[in-house]
Specification:
Elements (H helix, E strand, L loop, with lengths): L1 E4 L5 H10 L4 E4 L10 E4 L4 H10 L3 H10 L2 E4 L1 H6 L2 E2 L12 E4 L10 E9 L2 E9 L4 E5 L4 E6 L2 E7 L2 E4 L10 H18 L1
Parallel strand pairs: 1-2, 1-3, 3-4, 4-12, 5-6
Antiparallel strand pairs: 6-9, 7-8, 10-11, 11-12
The structure holds glutamine (GLN).
Glutamine binds next to helix 4.
Length: 195
């Protein structure tokens, strides 16, 4: 089962997209739910608010523990939360991606934009329509980070083994490659743990 972190933000869009792919998912809000899922989507929203709710719901440890073995797809606010360091002290970084990232780095809401980017994932190159909504900018790449796509020279899609982080919203343009990847990774983990 894929879980979608449902504390704040546009988690329903991810659930709808997964459903269209024929993948069941469930809204995740509490620590014990991490026992029932084997893949997680961390959606966009307000990273400072989501961070606060993660602490209040005692989810810091469960998410980090989960990430050690199971895959996560993080979009926008999600990738901010997954980073090692941000420019906003209200966000407690989960330190899952070895990156530094700056919130709202393209400017205000009116500076949000949609553009087509080229994504290299698992040896396949795809054109992806990407919505950048008060998007963050990755400022520094650390260890074990593969860049899957850039926009004007800035990394906008990254991968660390089973995890993917995007500074844009694929779900708003019905882009399914990242959710399919999450599902493939989940199946891989299932197979490994069955052996
Ligand atoms: N601006 C938001 C933040 O900094 C992220 C925006 C989004 O998720 N679309 O948390």
């Amino acid at each position: 089962m894929i879980g979608v972190l449902a504390l704040q933000g546009n988690f329903t869009k991810h659930i709808e997209l997964l459903k269209r792919l024929g993948i069941f998912s469930t809204e995740v809000r509490y620590p014990d739910q991490f026992n029932d899922i084997d893949g997680l989507v961390m959606p966009g929203g307000e990273s400072s608010v989501i961070s606060d709710l993660i602490v209040r719901n005692d989810l810091l440890e469960p998410i980090v523990e989960f990430s050690r073995v199971k895959p996560i797809l993080a979009t926008c606010a999600g990738i901010i939360l997954m980073s090692k360091k941000t420019n906003d002290s209200r966000v407690i970084p989960l330190n899952i991606f070895d990156i530094e990232i700056n919130r709202n780095a393209y400017g205000r809401q009116i500076h949000s934009f949609v553009d087509t980017i080229q994504v290299d994932l698992n040896g396949t190159t795809s054109n992806v329509v990407a919505s950048f909504i008060r998007a963050p900018k990755i400022a520094k790449l650390g260890n074990d980070i593969e860049v899957l796509a850039t926009h004007n020279g800035i990394p906008v899609a990254i991968r660390n083994d089973r995890h993917i982080g995007l500074t844009f919203h694929p779900e708003l343009n019905n882009e399914t490659i990242f959710h399919s990847f999450l599902f493939q990774m989940k199946k891989k983990v299932d197979t490994l743990s069955a052996n």
